[in-house]
Specification:
The structure is a homodimer. By secondary structure, chain A is an alpha/beta fold. Chain A contains ten helices and twelve strands. Chain A has two domains: 272 residues, Alpha/Beta hydrolase fold, catalytic domain (Rossmann fold, 3-Layer(aba) Sandwich); 99 residues, Rna Polymerase Sigma Factor, Chain: A, CATH 1.10.1740. In chain A, the strands form three sheets. An eight-stranded mixed sheet of chain A has the order 1-4-6-5-9-10-11-12, sandwiched between helices. In chain A, strands 2-3 form a two-stranded antiparallel sheet.
Amino acid sequence: MADLDLDVSAPLGGGVWRFPADRPLVLDSGAKISGLEVAYQTYGSLNENGTNAILICHALTGDQYVASTHPTTGKPGWWTRLVGPGKPIDPARHFVICSNVIGGCMGSTGPASIDPATGEPWGLSFPILTIADMVRAQAMLIDALGVDTLLAVVGGSMGGMQVQQWAADYPQRLFSAVIVASASRHSAQNIAFHEVGRQAIMADPEWRGGAYAAQGARPEKGLAVARMAAHITYLSEPALQRKFGRELQRDGLSWGFDADFQVESYLRHQGASFVDRFDANSYLYITRAMDYFDLAAPHGGVLANAFKAARDVRFCVLSFTSDWLYPTSESRHIVRALTAAGCRAAFAEIDSDKGHDAFLLDEPVMDAALTGFMASVERERGIGR
Amino acid sequence: MADLDLDVSAPLGGGVWRFPADRPLVLDSGAKISGLEVAYQTYGSLNENGTNAILICHALTGDQYVASTHPTTGKPGWWTRLVGPGKPIDPARHFVICSNVIGGCMGSTGPASIDPATGEPWGLSFPILTIADMVRAQAMLIDALGVDTLLAVVGGSMGGMQVQQWAADYPQRLFSAVIVASASRHSAQNIAFHEVGRQAIMADPEWRGGAYAAQGARPEKGLAVARMAAHITYLSEPALQRKFGRELQRDGLSWGFDADFQVESYLRHQGASFVDRFDANSYLYITRAMDYFDLAAPHGGVLANAFKAARDVRFCVLSFTSDWLYPTSESRHIVRALTAAGCRAAFAEIDSDKGHDAFLLDEPVMDAALTGFMASVERERGIGR
């Protein structure tokens, strides 16, 4: 840590950490953001050797509340199955960090934040972000938390993209990396679904060209439609069939456009509840960052090159059989590249009919895989348990 | 035909046929539509024995212009690959009929038509329709064309639903039936995608509660988003990847929300061109009819029961390996039911990476299957060729 020459300036437990005024974040686009704020939560504390820190990276609509109650929804943390007392990631042993990505809307600087230059919300004048930009801000946050190297960086879906970016950009700061239900680049179909969501938002006149916040409006209908479309991609066809099939909401059909089928009602609920906790412009910016993600591209189009400096990092890659958003073939592609780069990579495809969202749901085989991997990593790192 | 006691009142070639005033169409909902109009095209002419008529049923956004230029888009008929001189369905040998479904927007009575009771467009006061209602109107149209029995009823996707409904409701009027890329009921995922499209339309303030036509408005943005979402389901992931991958529109990224990727531009074009030829309320009504479709339901939940009276009908069922909208498992479900009902059913799963839309595209194996099936049907029916 001595070479970083930093004070531990970010408080334990969580809050919002503000970048020092003289350290703007330089983005891939070339733009700079000064006074960037990163909202985060921590659980547990750093051990004496500084070897027990774990960074958890959230997915598109996730946030820093990985293991604590969400302040808006009142729901438990989104990964309490894996993070908590007696879980594979345990604040009793680990210093757990989770931050809201930049561009997000749970406290980190994003398009809904106030642009100091105008005193108005940034809106569409906020610069376009990349997954690498998000990771760059996380690296500065862990500096501020006094963390030099991470025992593990862990994430699912977009979180797994950040994990790969960490391995490419900061391999010397990682001991291990866990990539769940993810991909090394967005496919044409991935981009297509995101574009539908963005068009749904931008079609809403309440979006006001992105300036809705300054004008006291909210593109709730457009954002709800975007969420509904995306939500279908998070579930497998068999899971939808098992959960809902053609079950009706009431006895008999309405012979109208009410939600006759339970699956319609479920989707409408997903859309309606999402707008209470998410910002439409953040949705545009984060989906754009995911679409732009193509880890091989800046490495001559060869993914293995991105991982060349990560030979000492222990990788764990997990996928789910019924995930059609980031199917197992994408994980295999990552594992092949890791192998070609000379990295150690454990890989498991987990049998599940729950689709992409399996990484957030009750999947004991996934828990077991992560438990085993974390135990082996801790042994190698010399952390007793 | 004598027992039907009908004049041939619908002109050859095509046009709009108006139901006699004393014959309202009674719908499954219980509603009646008087003076119903059905827009249709015919090709070729009925032979002396009346044995060469073929009805072609169109898909969700299709129309009666199966083998002739579309009046709005100027594009060739949507199935000229299969219908035309030297094709498996050939006006030189067959009397080909194709009608716009009721609820549609290409001339048949639908929500954009004028409600005689008010002198205004029906809008949402138009009654909810079913696939059976569409078929009932088609049966009345072929009466008016002087056709007693059909050599074949043929359709893909929603067209295939109508074919199955024909087999259930009018088996004695069919000699053969061809069901392509279809299903016997909408799955939860099918309903979910349609609901996203409907919500996108209804979220557009220009929809005006369905009364846009009377108010001189058009919910173009919502309808375009609906089309974009649906369009993704028509293509396979490999086809999207092959056609577009991550190819850019221009050199380099825009670092904004322009259509950077070719797949975005393609989808936007699909949305924009669709609104020029389709009515938003028709989209609501027809998707609803498809969601309501569950052929087994009125037959005690046993699909075979629906086909029991169709034992003399020769069936051909075709599916495509990469169709994830109506996957091969749905076709197999139909074939099992046909077999259980004692029907003769030819079945072929065709290797294609083009997804659901394969039935509209260049798939020589499909052409060959249909050619062979039609030849055998014609031999059995005693039509020389």
